[in-house]
């Protein structure tokens, strides 16, 4: 009964958060500008000059899973700003005063970030098809992609909410979000193979959860080789649980 109540509370919070997207979808379309530029300019140019060897795939094919993961990361890593805004408006205090466990509140908000990530993914899929990028579109592969995207969004939105408990202001959250996104992105295998990195960067990529998200997305969308999927899901799953737990412990500190 207690587990069911927690799940029900999480879904209720997620549904409340998802309403914002339905009432004001403009943010999703503005968020599409950056990944579109990566694919249309960066991807097209590097495909033409063949500066990076990504055989047997074109560079556009290789970069598409990475840009997909990046766009979800960018949406999620600033989620803590929304939580701080809710604190300033008094909404978070009201939410935490309900019988819903703190873990359910955090899980619901991170699940809502996953819904935003799915909508972002659909738009990037459409863009990739328009550009003629060949991807695996089997139903099971797409289901695997969507699952990884939701876990990816939950992972980094929980990290953002955890940091919000320490930083407590929107200006600080904006600064730390900007400081984290680029190292996470460029320190992963999103836009170039890990084998091309210097040794020290390879070590960082090995502990970067975004690398495992991208690796899983490439397995589903390009190679069809699922041998790394258990490791990818394990690493991202463990990191997500740790972040969810940490954020649920810190969210009360935000309103104190």
> How large is the share of residues in beta strands?
under 5%
- Count of folded domains: 1
User: Rg, please?
Assistant: 18 Å
Mean pLDDT: 80
The main β sheet shows up as: none
Number of helical regions = 12
Distance between the termini: 30 Å
Helix content: over 70%
Topology as a string of helices (H) and strands (E): HHHHHHHHHHHH
Report the oligomer: single chain
Counting helices, strands and paired strands, the structural category is mainly alpha
Which spans of ≥5 residues are poorly predicted at pLDDT below 50?
A: none
Shape designation: globular
Number of strands: 0
Give structural notes.
This protein has 256 residues and is mostly helical. It has one domain (2-254). 80% of the residues lie in helices and 0% in strands. It contains 12 helices and no strands. α4 (59-77) crosses α11, α5 packs antiparallel against α9 (170-186) and α8 packs antiparallel against α11. The protein starts with a helix and ends with a helix.
Feature tags:
single chain, 256 residues
Break the fold down into its secondary structure elements and pairings.
Elements: H1 2-23, H2 26-31, H3 33-49, H4 59-77, H5 79-89, H6 91-96, H7 102-130, H8 139-167, H9 170-186, H10 199-206, H11 209-223, H12 229-254
